[in-house]
Amino acid sequence: MMPIDARAFPFMLEQQPWFVVILMFSLLGWLVLLVSMKANRHRRYQRQALRVLARLPLLAGDGQRLNYLRKINPYVFEELLLTAFERRGYRIKRNRQYSGDGGLDGQVWIDGQRYLIQAKRYARAITPAHVAEFSALVRREGCRGVFVHTGRTGPKSRAELTRFPEIELLSGQQLLNLLKKD
User: Fold this and answer.
1) 40, 120, 128, 157 — which has fewest CB within 10 A?
2) Do residues 116 and 107 touch, judged by C-beta distance below 8 A?
3) pLDDT score, position 19
């Protein structure tokens, strides 16, 4: 294979203008494809969250419900929480992306107050570092926060939460109550 001389590229553009058109349409096509894939993924996770909400009441008890929540896709769990808040009449804001969100999994407005949401779908205990990182984000944003998780809250994490009154913990029975259909 012959190496391509980068200096010949401007010459190609002058001699073959169709090359530019093809290149531009190719790039545009890839951009449209990427955007639609992300939108489709969000819609798919939202549909899965609706199925989870429909399945939860069919499970035998609260222990089974929490175990089930611990096994769902973490992004579906985020959508599940946002959908539950939305069903209760609260205004929500979804993120444009799931990963690289800086610890912010969504937003909800309750009684005119903005809350950031941190969702942890864990089987084990949350750590004090999780709480501290989220509290730093909440303070930077100048609002309140809801830390939602499916795991356990150990004594060190509870102590950390008492240092940050702007963060509310939502887990266990409170989490299941949010997800109940009224």
Assistant:
1) 40
2) yes
3) 60
